[in-house]
Amino acid sequence: MDEIPEEYQYLFTDDYLGDRHIFRVWAHNPEILEATLDYLNTLYDQLTPRRKELVILTVARTRGARYEWHQHVDIARDKGVEQQEMRAIGGDDFSTFDDEEFVLLQYAEAVAEGSVTDQIHSALETAYSPAEIVAIGLIVDFYVGLCNYVASVDLPFEGGEFVGWTPSDEKIASLFG
Q: Is residue 1 part of a domain?
């Protein structure tokens, strides 16, 4: 914190970012961190917190991004995503979701893989506005890039160990309280 310019120190309070490892890495360039957070907050405002977390979890699973998955298992619990839903995404099974969320997850997976078909895009258009579709695609793209970046810096997990792709309730409770 002593090395961070005073005008950016608010970013690292418990009320704002808290103390996650990714933010410690980004602290090396607080100007970019602040701009990135402004961009993300604009994107996040386009979807419900629950749907945003479903998209992020899907991208993390699709990309095999253990750090992002681990982080968002913790975060998603407070945004209305049930632990059994996380296990379904972690097990590559979207069948338990309603139609709107099912197509959202299919689309997020397809964008993350670079394999969007006309059929998937058309299905998404029946449930989401053009503005929401833009936001969904940009959230996916951001997290694909973030997953690649995190892999390059090899961040350790908060809590010391990976929660797992289909974590038990006990494992989640032991790592995240």
A: no
**Are 73 and 114 found together in one domain?**
yes
Least confident span in 16-25, 51-60, 72-81, 145-154: 16-25
Amino acid present at 112? A
Confidence (pTM): 0.91
Q: Give the integer Cα–Cα distance in Å for 48 and 127.
A: 14
